[in-house]
Design goal:
The protein has 359 residues and is an alpha/beta fold. The protein folds into 2 domains: 147 residues, 3-Layer(aba) Sandwich (Rossmann fold); 199 residues, 2-Layer Sandwich (Dihydrodipicolinate Reductase, domain 2), CATH 3.30.360. The protein is built from 12 helices and 14 strands. The chain has an 8-stranded mixed β-sheet. Strand 11 and strand 12 form a beta hairpin. Helix 1 crosses helix 11, helix 4 runs parallel beside helix 5 and helix 5 runs antiparallel to helix 12. The radius of gyration is 20 Å and the shape is globular.
Protein backbone atom coordinates (compact mmCIF):
# COMPACT_ATOMS: atom_id res chain seq x y z
CA UNK A 1 0.00 0.00 0.00
CA UNK A 2 1.53 3.31 -1.12
CA UNK A 3 1.95 5.86 1.69
CA UNK A 4 3.01 9.50 1.71
CA UNK A 5 3.55 12.05 4.48
CA UNK A 6 2.55 15.72 4.27
CA UNK A 7 4.35 17.91 6.80
CA UNK A 8 7.77 17.17 8.31
CA UNK A 9 7.72 19.09 11.59
CA UNK A 10 7.83 18.08 15.26
CA UNK A 11 5.29 15.21 15.22
CA UNK A 12 6.26 13.80 11.81
CA UNK A 13 8.97 11.54 13.23
CA UNK A 14 6.24 9.48 14.92
CA UNK A 15 4.49 9.08 11.56
CA UNK A 16 7.66 7.93 9.80
CA UNK A 17 8.45 5.53 12.63
CA UNK A 18 4.92 4.12 12.47
CA UNK A 19 5.17 3.71 8.69
CA UNK A 20 8.53 1.93 8.99
CA UNK A 21 7.15 -0.32 11.74
CA UNK A 22 4.34 -1.30 9.34
CA UNK A 23 6.62 -1.72 6.32
CA UNK A 24 5.33 -5.22 5.57
CA UNK A 25 2.11 -3.60 4.37
CA UNK A 26 3.10 0.04 3.85
CA UNK A 27 5.48 1.45 1.25
CA UNK A 28 6.84 4.89 2.13
CA UNK A 29 6.84 6.54 -1.30
CA UNK A 30 7.12 10.26 -0.63
CA UNK A 31 7.37 13.07 1.88
CA UNK A 32 6.28 16.66 1.44
CA UNK A 33 7.13 19.93 3.17
CA UNK A 34 7.47 23.53 2.03
CA UNK A 35 10.96 23.45 3.61
CA UNK A 36 13.30 21.01 1.80
CA UNK A 37 15.65 20.93 4.80
CA UNK A 38 12.80 19.70 7.03
CA UNK A 39 12.34 16.66 4.78
CA UNK A 40 16.05 15.84 4.80
CA UNK A 41 16.36 16.26 8.57
CA UNK A 42 13.40 13.95 9.13
CA UNK A 43 14.62 11.24 6.76
CA UNK A 44 18.15 11.42 8.16
CA UNK A 45 16.78 10.90 11.67
CA UNK A 46 15.45 7.54 10.52
CA UNK A 47 18.43 6.59 8.34
CA UNK A 48 16.42 7.09 5.15
CA UNK A 49 18.25 10.08 3.66
CA UNK A 50 19.92 7.95 0.95
CA UNK A 51 16.77 6.06 -0.01
CA UNK A 52 16.09 7.25 -3.56
CA UNK A 53 12.74 5.46 -3.67
CA UNK A 54 11.36 8.09 -1.27
CA UNK A 55 10.47 11.13 -3.38
CA UNK A 56 10.59 14.67 -2.00
CA UNK A 57 7.98 17.32 -2.78
CA UNK A 58 7.30 20.90 -1.72
CA UNK A 59 3.77 20.86 -3.21
CA UNK A 60 1.43 18.18 -1.87
CA UNK A 61 -0.95 18.47 -4.84
CA UNK A 62 1.85 17.63 -7.26
CA UNK A 63 2.91 14.77 -5.00
CA UNK A 64 -0.57 13.26 -4.91
CA UNK A 65 -0.92 13.47 -8.70
CA UNK A 66 2.44 11.84 -9.34
CA UNK A 67 2.65 9.27 -6.52
CA UNK A 68 -1.06 8.38 -6.30
CA UNK A 69 -0.79 7.04 -2.71
CA UNK A 70 -3.54 4.98 -1.11
CA UNK A 71 -2.84 6.45 2.32
CA UNK A 72 -1.59 9.89 3.38
CA UNK A 73 -0.93 11.26 6.82
CA UNK A 74 -1.23 14.99 7.42
CA UNK A 75 1.24 16.37 9.98
CA UNK A 76 1.43 20.04 9.03
CA UNK A 77 0.58 22.92 11.34
CA UNK A 78 -3.05 22.65 12.41
CA UNK A 79 -4.54 25.43 10.27
CA UNK A 80 -4.51 23.66 6.88
CA UNK A 81 -5.39 20.15 8.18
CA UNK A 82 -8.98 20.26 6.91
CA UNK A 83 -8.14 21.82 3.54
CA UNK A 84 -5.49 19.18 2.81
CA UNK A 85 -7.71 16.37 4.09
CA UNK A 86 -10.63 17.41 1.88
CA UNK A 87 -8.34 17.61 -1.14
CA UNK A 88 -7.13 14.06 -0.45
CA UNK A 89 -10.65 12.76 0.14
CA UNK A 90 -11.86 14.23 -3.16
CA UNK A 91 -9.10 12.25 -4.89
CA UNK A 92 -10.21 9.05 -3.14
CA UNK A 93 -7.15 8.92 -0.87
CA UNK A 94 -7.46 7.58 2.69
CA UNK A 95 -6.09 9.92 5.35
CA UNK A 96 -4.71 10.02 8.87
CA UNK A 97 -5.12 13.58 10.19
CA UNK A 98 -3.03 14.86 13.07
CA UNK A 99 -5.01 16.57 15.79
CA UNK A 100 -7.00 18.72 15.63
CA UNK A 101 -8.60 17.45 12.42
CA UNK A 102 -9.97 20.95 11.73
CA UNK A 103 -10.15 24.42 13.30
CA UNK A 104 -13.91 24.83 13.01
CA UNK A 105 -17.03 22.68 13.18
CA UNK A 106 -18.08 23.28 9.58
CA UNK A 107 -14.84 21.78 8.22
CA UNK A 108 -15.00 18.81 10.58
CA UNK A 109 -18.56 18.04 9.52
CA UNK A 110 -17.60 18.39 5.85
CA UNK A 111 -14.73 15.91 6.27
CA UNK A 112 -17.19 13.38 7.70
CA UNK A 113 -19.79 14.02 4.99
CA UNK A 114 -17.39 13.89 2.06
CA UNK A 115 -15.46 10.85 3.32
CA UNK A 116 -18.75 8.91 3.46
CA UNK A 117 -19.63 10.12 -0.02
CA UNK A 118 -16.27 8.99 -1.42
CA UNK A 119 -16.03 5.84 0.76
CA UNK A 120 -12.66 7.03 2.01
CA UNK A 121 -11.26 6.07 5.41
CA UNK A 122 -10.43 9.00 7.69
CA UNK A 123 -8.57 8.52 10.95
CA UNK A 124 -8.13 11.27 13.54
CA UNK A 125 -4.69 10.79 15.06
CA UNK A 126 -5.62 10.30 18.71
CA UNK A 127 -2.97 7.64 19.24
CA UNK A 128 -3.27 7.53 23.04
CA UNK A 129 -6.37 5.37 22.64
CA UNK A 130 -3.88 2.59 21.88
CA UNK A 131 -1.86 3.02 25.10
CA UNK A 132 -1.76 -0.25 27.06
CA UNK A 133 -3.25 1.39 30.17
CA UNK A 134 -6.02 2.99 28.13
CA UNK A 135 -6.88 -0.24 26.30
CA UNK A 136 -7.09 -2.21 29.56
CA UNK A 137 -9.37 0.45 31.04
CA UNK A 138 -11.55 0.52 27.94
CA UNK A 139 -11.95 -3.27 28.07
CA UNK A 140 -13.04 -3.04 31.73
CA UNK A 141 -15.47 -0.27 30.84
CA UNK A 142 -17.01 -2.13 27.90
CA UNK A 143 -17.49 -5.27 30.01
CA UNK A 144 -19.42 -3.25 32.60
CA UNK A 145 -16.95 -3.58 35.45
CA UNK A 146 -17.32 0.06 36.55
CA UNK A 147 -21.10 -0.24 36.94
CA UNK A 148 -22.83 3.12 36.74
CA UNK A 149 -20.37 5.92 36.07
CA UNK A 150 -20.31 8.72 38.63
CA UNK A 151 -17.69 11.22 37.51
CA UNK A 152 -14.20 11.66 36.17
CA UNK A 153 -11.53 14.14 35.18
CA UNK A 154 -8.60 14.75 32.87
CA UNK A 155 -5.56 16.74 33.99
CA UNK A 156 -2.98 17.72 31.40
CA UNK A 157 -0.30 19.57 33.34
CA UNK A 158 2.54 20.30 31.00
CA UNK A 159 5.18 22.94 30.28
CA UNK A 160 5.75 24.86 27.06
CA UNK A 161 8.22 27.73 27.25
CA UNK A 162 9.17 30.65 25.02
CA UNK A 163 11.67 28.51 23.13
CA UNK A 164 8.96 26.05 22.08
CA UNK A 165 6.81 28.80 20.59
CA UNK A 166 9.79 30.48 18.92
CA UNK A 167 10.40 27.30 16.90
CA UNK A 168 7.26 27.91 14.81
CA UNK A 169 5.38 31.18 14.44
CA UNK A 170 2.02 29.47 13.91
CA UNK A 171 1.96 28.09 17.45
CA UNK A 172 -0.46 29.77 19.80
CA UNK A 173 -2.30 31.61 17.01
CA UNK A 174 -6.08 31.30 16.68
CA UNK A 175 -6.00 30.70 12.91
CA UNK A 176 -3.31 28.02 12.84
CA UNK A 177 -3.22 26.40 16.28
CA UNK A 178 -5.36 27.54 19.22
CA UNK A 179 -4.02 27.33 22.75
CA UNK A 180 -3.06 24.62 25.22
CA UNK A 181 -6.49 22.96 25.06
CA UNK A 182 -6.45 22.59 21.28
CA UNK A 183 -2.79 21.62 20.91
CA UNK A 184 -1.54 19.89 24.04
CA UNK A 185 -4.72 18.76 25.82
CA UNK A 186 -6.85 17.44 22.98
CA UNK A 187 -5.67 13.84 23.43
CA UNK A 188 -6.75 13.77 27.07
CA UNK A 189 -10.05 15.45 26.23
CA UNK A 190 -10.63 12.81 23.56
CA UNK A 191 -10.06 10.04 26.11
CA UNK A 192 -12.41 11.61 28.65
CA UNK A 193 -15.30 12.02 26.21
CA UNK A 194 -14.77 8.54 24.73
CA UNK A 195 -14.67 6.81 28.12
CA UNK A 196 -17.80 8.55 29.33
CA UNK A 197 -19.93 7.55 26.37
CA UNK A 198 -19.39 10.43 23.90
CA UNK A 199 -22.88 11.90 24.39
CA UNK A 200 -22.42 15.34 25.97
CA UNK A 201 -25.24 17.59 27.12
CA UNK A 202 -23.42 20.74 28.22
CA UNK A 203 -19.96 22.25 28.66
CA UNK A 204 -19.10 25.20 30.89
CA UNK A 205 -15.55 26.44 30.64
CA UNK A 206 -13.15 29.25 31.30
CA UNK A 207 -9.70 29.95 29.89
CA UNK A 208 -6.89 32.35 30.76
CA UNK A 209 -3.59 33.57 29.39
CA UNK A 210 -1.41 33.73 32.50
CA UNK A 211 2.24 33.56 31.45
CA UNK A 212 2.35 33.46 27.63
CA UNK A 213 1.46 37.04 26.71
CA UNK A 214 3.35 36.70 23.42
CA UNK A 215 0.62 34.33 22.14
CA UNK A 216 -2.94 34.93 20.95
CA UNK A 217 -4.44 31.93 22.75
CA UNK A 218 -4.85 30.47 26.24
CA UNK A 219 -2.25 28.74 28.40
CA UNK A 220 -4.74 27.35 30.94
CA UNK A 221 -8.29 26.10 30.54
CA UNK A 222 -10.83 24.57 32.93
CA UNK A 223 -14.25 23.09 32.26
CA UNK A 224 -17.15 21.14 33.73
CA UNK A 225 -18.82 18.62 31.43
CA UNK A 226 -22.30 17.16 31.83
CA UNK A 227 -22.80 13.87 30.00
CA UNK A 228 -26.20 12.66 28.83
CA UNK A 229 -25.80 9.46 30.86
CA UNK A 230 -25.79 11.54 34.06
CA UNK A 231 -22.04 11.46 34.70
CA UNK A 232 -20.11 14.68 35.22
CA UNK A 233 -16.45 15.45 34.63
CA UNK A 234 -13.85 18.17 34.86
CA UNK A 235 -11.11 19.21 32.46
CA UNK A 236 -7.88 20.95 33.43
CA UNK A 237 -5.33 21.74 30.76
CA UNK A 238 -2.28 23.95 30.95
CA UNK A 239 1.22 24.60 29.66
CA UNK A 240 2.11 26.64 32.76
CA UNK A 241 3.64 23.90 34.93
CA UNK A 242 7.12 24.76 36.24
CA UNK A 243 9.69 23.58 35.29
CA UNK A 244 8.68 20.67 32.98
CA UNK A 245 5.82 18.35 32.01
CA UNK A 246 4.21 16.90 35.12
CA UNK A 247 1.37 14.59 34.13
CA UNK A 248 -1.52 13.64 31.89
CA UNK A 249 -3.93 11.89 34.22
CA UNK A 250 -7.38 10.42 33.62
CA UNK A 251 -9.68 9.49 36.52
CA UNK A 252 -12.78 7.31 36.15
CA UNK A 253 -15.04 6.76 39.15
CA UNK A 254 -17.81 4.18 38.90
CA UNK A 255 -20.20 2.40 41.23
CA UNK A 256 -18.00 -0.71 41.29
CA UNK A 257 -14.62 0.52 40.06
CA UNK A 258 -11.99 3.24 40.25
CA UNK A 259 -9.14 3.73 37.79
CA UNK A 260 -6.46 6.38 37.63
CA UNK A 261 -4.36 6.41 34.47
CA UNK A 262 -1.27 8.56 34.99
CA UNK A 263 2.24 9.15 33.70
CA UNK A 264 3.23 12.05 31.47
CA UNK A 265 0.87 10.87 28.72
CA UNK A 266 -1.75 8.50 30.21
CA UNK A 267 0.72 5.62 29.93
CA UNK A 268 0.67 4.19 33.49
CA UNK A 269 -1.98 2.63 35.73
CA UNK A 270 -1.71 4.30 39.14
CA UNK A 271 -4.97 2.97 40.62
CA UNK A 272 -6.91 -0.13 39.55
CA UNK A 273 -9.67 -1.18 41.97
CA UNK A 274 -12.77 -3.22 41.11
CA UNK A 275 -15.43 -4.97 43.20
CA UNK A 276 -15.08 -8.17 41.14
CA UNK A 277 -11.29 -8.30 41.38
CA UNK A 278 -9.53 -11.35 39.97
CA UNK A 279 -5.93 -12.56 39.89
CA UNK A 280 -5.52 -10.98 36.45
CA UNK A 281 -6.17 -7.55 37.95
CA UNK A 282 -2.95 -7.78 39.96
CA UNK A 283 -0.98 -7.47 36.73
CA UNK A 284 -2.63 -4.14 35.96
CA UNK A 285 -1.84 -2.52 39.30
CA UNK A 286 1.22 -0.33 38.86
CA UNK A 287 1.49 -1.02 35.11
CA UNK A 288 3.98 1.28 33.38
CA UNK A 289 4.40 1.63 29.63
CA UNK A 290 7.79 3.10 28.80
CA UNK A 291 7.66 5.98 26.29
CA UNK A 292 10.43 8.06 24.74
CA UNK A 293 8.28 11.21 24.59
CA UNK A 294 4.83 12.57 25.49
CA UNK A 295 3.39 11.29 22.21
CA UNK A 296 3.63 7.72 23.48
CA UNK A 297 3.81 4.53 21.40
CA UNK A 298 0.35 4.54 19.84
CA UNK A 299 1.14 5.76 16.33
CA UNK A 300 2.35 2.32 15.17
CA UNK A 301 -0.85 0.62 16.35
CA UNK A 302 -2.98 3.41 14.91
CA UNK A 303 -1.32 3.04 11.49
CA UNK A 304 -1.77 -0.74 11.62
CA UNK A 305 -5.46 -0.29 12.39
CA UNK A 306 -5.97 2.13 9.49
CA UNK A 307 -4.24 -0.26 7.08
CA UNK A 308 -6.56 -3.04 8.26
CA UNK A 309 -9.59 -0.74 7.98
CA UNK A 310 -8.72 0.02 4.35
CA UNK A 311 -8.12 -3.65 3.52
CA UNK A 312 -11.36 -4.79 5.16
CA UNK A 313 -13.54 -1.78 4.27
CA UNK A 314 -14.45 -0.85 7.83
CA UNK A 315 -14.19 2.34 9.87
CA UNK A 316 -10.88 2.98 11.66
CA UNK A 317 -10.84 2.48 15.44
CA UNK A 318 -10.35 6.26 15.77
CA UNK A 319 -12.51 7.64 12.99
CA UNK A 320 -13.41 11.12 11.76
CA UNK A 321 -16.34 11.33 14.18
CA UNK A 322 -13.89 10.84 17.06
CA UNK A 323 -11.83 13.72 15.72
CA UNK A 324 -14.93 15.88 15.47
CA UNK A 325 -15.98 15.00 19.03
CA UNK A 326 -12.66 16.09 20.52
CA UNK A 327 -12.66 19.32 18.50
CA UNK A 328 -16.25 20.04 19.54
CA UNK A 329 -15.38 19.78 23.23
CA UNK A 330 -12.59 22.33 22.91
CA UNK A 331 -14.55 24.77 20.77
CA UNK A 332 -17.40 24.51 23.28
CA UNK A 333 -15.00 25.54 26.06
CA UNK A 334 -13.80 28.43 23.91
CA UNK A 335 -17.35 29.53 23.17
CA UNK A 336 -18.21 29.31 26.86
CA UNK A 337 -15.24 31.54 27.67
CA UNK A 338 -16.32 34.02 25.02
CA UNK A 339 -19.97 34.15 26.07
CA UNK A 340 -19.64 33.49 29.80
CA UNK A 341 -22.42 30.91 29.46
CA UNK A 342 -22.69 27.10 29.41
CA UNK A 343 -22.74 25.69 25.87
CA UNK A 344 -25.19 23.01 24.79
CA UNK A 345 -24.00 20.35 22.37
CA UNK A 346 -24.07 19.59 19.49
CA UNK A 347 -22.06 22.62 18.42
CA UNK A 348 -22.43 23.55 14.76
CA UNK A 349 -21.24 27.10 14.26
CA UNK A 350 -17.98 27.89 16.02
CA UNK A 351 -14.34 28.28 14.96
CA UNK A 352 -11.08 28.92 16.78
CA UNK A 353 -10.75 32.19 14.83
CA UNK A 354 -13.91 33.41 16.61
CA UNK A 355 -11.69 33.83 19.68
CA UNK A 356 -9.54 36.46 17.98
CA UNK A 357 -8.75 39.26 20.40
CA UNK A 358 -9.98 37.35 23.48
CA UNK A 359 -6.75 38.04 25.39
Amino acid sequence: MKYALIGCGRISTNHIKAAVNNKEKLELCAVCDILPEAMETLLAKHGLEKDESIKRYTDYKVMLDEIKPELVSIATESGPHAEIALYCIDKGINVIIEKPMAMNMADADEIIRRSKEMNVKVCACHQNRFNVAVQKTRKALESGRFGKLSHGSIHVRWNRNHNYYDQAKWRGTWAQDGGCLMNQCIHGIDLLRWMFGNEVDEVYGTTRQQFHDYLEAEDVGMAVVKFKNGAVATIEGTTNVYPKNLEETLYIFGEKGTVKIGGTSTNNIDVWDFADESDADQQNKGLKEATSNVYGNGHTSLFADVIDAIENDRQPYVDAVAGRNALEMILAIYKSQKTGQPVKLPLTDFASIDMKGEF
